[in-house]
């Protein structure tokens, strides 16, 4: 069931077209991540959903209710939408308990129990209830902010770069914890993030924006393995692109014959993710590979640069494990796992 519908929204700030004809559906109980380069319109889209900005044209609908139809809008505080932002925005002079219970009725008999339940839901100890925000770590503050937003029983939760102030290890933990909490509470969420890895692992649906337009929306797997265009492919991660001639499901390219997705025949460009390529030292078959020109040891993941024998392109970079790492100067063949993605020229 669709909970949130964004229907051909456009928004202009003077000469800047911040959003152009954006349409997107978000299913109830799902998590959508919005990604895109800086200035692509992510924050504007989130602010329009929240009700802090109005679209010039287009509609926002939540659970069948029209929240915005061009400039005619339901005010933000009447939308039933929760927001967790980058800094958590807790009230510094209030305790954790008071922050979480901020929107609750003062004398409500179940007030304390609800606060404790919310604290438990975000996996924090009861001993934190009397602390002030400055006595919490960044990750704990974010959990309190999430508990406060959940306490208002939102129909939709907007997450505006909520993990970006946290360091890498904590970030990953928080992302998993937040996904778990949202899942348990059955709350639909839209996340805006600069971190493509975060988007791919957090969301059921990823929406890619570029220059105010929606380039592609789909499952993380689709977006990563079957990107609409080169730019999207490279935005989401490293990619090896090769010219090819396609015939009957196989691409004839610098790596030999590689299976491809789709019905296209003839000239095309194919894309492989580096982790699809395995480097094998094999002098006899180096025409389907090339010469190793650089090896970067990186612990769990190492990078091998191979100058291809069959085509004059810059060396391709392949991520590989530290086991059986080739040496600089080795002649190697390159084996492919899975299928290549085709960009029709
Ligand atoms: N209030 C405003 N007045 C004028 N221009 C604005 C305003 N808000 C956003 N813009 C412009 O609209 C475009 C989209 O901005 P937006 O903040 O939505 O991008 P973003 O993808 O969230 O960027 P970032 O990743 O850097 O936060 C940008 O060109 C920005 O400069």
Q: What would your notes on this structure say?
A:
This protein has 345 residues and is an alpha+beta fold. Helices cover 22% and strands 37% of the residues. It has helices at 42-50, 96-100, 111-121, 138-151, 168-185, 196-202, 220-225, 230-236, and strands at residues 2-13, 16-27, 31-35, 57-62, 65-69, 72-73, 81-84, 156-160, 188-192, 205-210, 213-218, 240-247, 250-253, 256-259, 266-272, 277-281, 289-296, 302-308, 316-320, 331-336, 341-344. Adenosine-5'-triphosphate binds next to β2 and α1. Belongs to the ABC transporter superfamily.
Give the count of structural domains: 2
Write down the CATH topology of the largest domain: Rossmann fold
Bound molecules: adenosine-5'-triphosphate
Based on CA atoms alone, the radius of gyration comes out at 24 Å
Question: DSSP strand (E) fraction?
Answer: 35-45%
Can you count the helices? Answer: 8
């Amino acid at each position: 069931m669709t909970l949130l519908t964004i229907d051909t929204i456009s928004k202009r700030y003077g000469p800047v077209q911040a959003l152009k004809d954006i349409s997107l559906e978000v299913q109830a109980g799902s998590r959508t991540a919005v990604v895109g380069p800086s200035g692509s319109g992510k924050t504007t889209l989130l602010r329009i959903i929240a009700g802090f900005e109005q679209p010039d044209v287009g509609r926002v609908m939540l659970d069948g209710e029209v929240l915005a139809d061009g400039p005619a809008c339901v005010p933000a505080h009447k939308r039933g939408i929760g927001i967790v932002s980058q800094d958590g925005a807790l009230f510094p002079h209030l305790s954790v308990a008071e922050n979480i219970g901020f929107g609750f009725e003062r004398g409500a008999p179940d007030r304390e129990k609800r606060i404790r339940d919310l604290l438990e839901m975000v996996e924090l100890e009861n001993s934190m209830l009397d602390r002030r925000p400055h006595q919490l770590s960044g990750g704990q503050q974010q959990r309190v902010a999430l508990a406060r937003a959940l306490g208002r029983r939102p129909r939709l939760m907007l997450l505006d770069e909520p993990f970006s102030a946290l360091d890498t290890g904590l970030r990953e933990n928080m992302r998993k914890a937040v996904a778990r909490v949202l899942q348990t509470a059955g709350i639909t969420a839209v996340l805006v993030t600069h971190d493509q890895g975060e988007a791919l692992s957090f969301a059921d649906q990823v929406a890619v924006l570029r220059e105010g337009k929606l380039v592609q929306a789909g499952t993380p797997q689709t977006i990563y393995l079957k990107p609409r265009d080169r730019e999207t492919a490279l935005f989401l991660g490293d990619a090896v692109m090769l010219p090819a001639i396609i015939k009957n499901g196989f691409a004839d390219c610098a790596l030999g014959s590689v299976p491809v997705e789709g019905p296209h025949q003839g000239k095309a460009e194919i894309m492989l993710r580096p982790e699809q390529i395995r480097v094998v030292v094999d002098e006899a078959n180096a025409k389907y590979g090339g010469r190793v020109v650089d090896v970067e040891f990186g612990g769990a993941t190492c990078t091998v640069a191979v100058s291809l024998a069959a085509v004059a392109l810059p060396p391709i970079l392949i991520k590989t494990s530290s086991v059986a790492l080739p040496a600089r100067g080795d002649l190697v063949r390159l084996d492919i796992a899975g299928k290549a993605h085709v960009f029709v020229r």
